[in-house]
Specification:
Helix content is 22%, strand content 28%. The chain has five helices and ten strands. The strands form two sheets. A seven-stranded antiparallel β-sheet has the order 1-2-8-5-10-4-3, covered by helices on one side.
């Protein structure tokens, strides 16, 4: 659902120029095979306003089974998403060889599910798109809105098997029972936070208050949740984050 912005934190959404810190430094962190992640600390000018916003709108957060996010989410609306897209095109375009924006979505999320509640696909890493068409690109973003590093940052993974074999695994687990998933993964329900028989953990970036990550949406990644018992559903103490998804046309070479 799209929010009705009627509280004191709404100016953050309604005034794009107030959203982002113009002095934030972009760090380019290599991952593997030429892939990298952009890390931006002190990303938002008023991050606490977004936490306050989440607290006021807590009843509007919903679980969406279609995208397999292990928790609840809320759509941040078109104006907020366009502000993120504008920042991306003005500040990060060269890193992704982006020429023209094609679409953007932005939501706020809280990771809340405990391991026994996880769908089989939620026990693995994921990617936001399997691939992109020639000349097109997909980027993903996450902004940590919590100050408890023990809730977990983000890890990036590399498949151990071919594209077809990896696709087959994900297809099988999409409709598998918990027991079949346990047998397939040779593990009890848990968030993926280390290498397993199908994926190698290549790099972990620690969560930090008001830290943003931007990376290619086709890279396998997962929240680095090793202590799920710490997960809560109160925005003030939860693993609260902004999530952005951007599509763009690449520069021609």
């Amino acid at each position: 659902m799209t929010l009705s912005l009627g509280d004191a934190a709404a100016y953050v959404v309604n005034n794009p120029s107030t959203l982002f810190n113009p002095h934030a430094v972009v760090q380019r962190l290599p991952l593997f095979d030429g892939h990298y992640c952009l890390v931006i600390d002190d990303f938002l000018r008023e991050p606490q306003a977004l936490v306050d916003f989440a607290q006021r709108h807590r009843p509007a957060f919903r679980y969406d089974s279609d995208n397999y996010f292990p928790g609840v989410e809320i759509n941040m609306g078109r104006q907020f998403a366009l502000a993120l897209e504008q920042f991306f095109m003005l500040q990060l375009r060269p890193y992704f060889q982006a020429r023209r924006q094609l679409g953007v979505a932005c939501r706020m999320s809280m990771t809340t599910l405990q391991p026994p509640q996880l769908h089989p696909l939620q026990r693995l890493c994921h990617r936001d798109a399997e691939s992109s068409s020639p000349g097109l690109g997909i980027a993903a973003a996450v902004v940590y809105l919590f100050d408890r590093p023990e809730l977990g940052g983000t890890s990036f993974y590399q498949p151990k098997f071919s594209v077809d074999e990896t696709r087959q695994l994900l297809t099988e687990l999409q409709h598998a029972s918990a027991q079949v998933c346990n047998e397939k993964l040779q593990a009890q329900p848990a968030y993926l936070h280390t290498s397993n028989a199908y994926f190698d953990l290549m790099h972990t970036i620690e969560a930090k208050w008001n830290r943003a990550l931007f990376y290619e949406g086709t890279i396998f990644h997962a929240a680095q949740i090793a202590q799920p018992e710490l997960l809560e559903d109160d925005p003030a103490t939860a693993r609260l984050a902004l999530n952005g998804f951007l599509k763009f046309k690449k520069q021609a070479f």
